[in-house]
Amino acid sequence: MSNKKIPIYVFNNNESKIVLSDEEIYAIETEKKKYAHARAVVIEALKIVQKKRGWISDQAIFAISKILKISISDIEGIATFYSQIFRQPVGKHIIRYCDSVVCYINGYESIVKEITKILKIQPGETTEDGIFTLLPVCCLGNCDKSPTLMINNKTYNCVKSNQIQFLLEKY
Ligand code: FES
């Protein structure tokens, strides 16, 4: 990568300054070349930065908006729409549970109750040791095997509350 020309960006966001790494800028610029409209690159740009930093700060939103020449509010709108993009720091492992109607009927509440009891956190929170973050989501697309839980990228089907301790111990 050393002989590739990387554009220089200096991002001043009032009180703070962020300079994305050469790799992040290069990766975003590379994606940008693939599409006629920069807007098509926003999700990929957010994923690139999140992969490196774990979440998307306000400063990162500002930096991406500069590179893509898209307004901060547009980037922010897209970032907050997608549940896979984190706008605050999260734990090492993300637990997502579905709180939609089929999982409700099949008892997701008892699963969440068990998780909150074991981890001592509420939905939307991260454990003190930074290992787990618990997040509700609207349907994981696995309704016929509900209640459904996802830990990172792994889906768990027909979960029962008495399986939670065992599941968490895997991480
Ligand atoms: S309703 Fe829970 S996975 Fe669809």
Give a summary of the structure in a few sentences.
With about 170 residues, the chain is α+β, with helices and mostly antiparallel strands. It has seven helices and six strands. The protein is about 40% helix and about 15% strand.
What is the CATH fold-level name of the largest domain? Glutaredoxin
DSSP strand count: 6
Order of helices and strands: EEHHHHEHHEEEH
Contiguous helical run count: 7
The proportion of residues forming helix, as a percent range, comes to 25-40%
Mean pLDDT across the residues is 89
From the spread of the alpha carbons, the general shape counts as elongated
- Overall structural domain count: 2
Strand order of the largest sheet: 4-3-5-6
Straight-line distance between termini:
35 Å
CATH architecture of the largest domain: 3-Layer(aba) Sandwich
Query: Can you identify the CATH superfamily of the largest domain?
Result: Glutaredoxin
Question: In oligomeric terms, what are we looking at?
Answer: single chain
Q: Biggest sheet, in brief? A: 4 strands, mixed
Helix-strand makeup class: alpha+beta
Ligand inventory reads: FE2/S2 (inorganic) cluster
Cα radius of gyration in angstroms: 19 Å
Organism: Candidatus Tachikawaea gelatinosa
Family: Belongs to the complex I 24 kDa subunit family.
Cofactor: [2Fe-2S] cluster
Binding site for [2Fe-2S] cluster: 98, 103, 139, 143
Structure report:
- The chain has 171 residues and is α+β, with helices and mostly antiparallel strands.
- The chain has two domains: 22-81, Arc Repressor Mutant, subunit A; 93-169, 3-Layer(aba) Sandwich (Glutaredoxin).
- It is 40% helix and 14% strand.
- The chain contains seven helices and six strands, in the order E-E-H-H-H-H-E-H-H-E-E-E-H.
- It has helices at 22-33, 42-53, 58-68, 72-81, 101-105, 108-119, 164-169, and strands at 11-13, 16-18, 93-98, 132-137, 149-151, 154-156.
- The strands form two sheets. Strands 4-3-5-6 form a four-stranded mixed sheet, covered by helices on one side. The chain has a two-stranded antiparallel sheet with strand order 1-2.
- Strand 5 (149-151) and strand 6 (154-156) form a beta hairpin.
- Helix 2 crosses helix 3 (58-68).
- It is elongated.
- It starts with 10 loop residues before the first strand and ends with a helix.
- The mean pLDDT is 89.
- The chain binds FE2/S2 (inorganic) cluster.
- FE2/S2 (inorganic) cluster (FES) binds at residues 98, 100-103, 139-140, 142-143, 146, 148.
- This is NADH-quinone oxidoreductase subunit E.
- It catalyses: a quinone + NADH + 5 H(+)(in) = a quinol + NAD(+) + 4 H(+)(out).
- Its cofactor is [2Fe-2S] cluster.
- InterPro entries: NuoE-like, NuoE_dom, NuoE_N, Thioredoxin-like_sf.
- Belongs to the complex I 24 kDa subunit family.
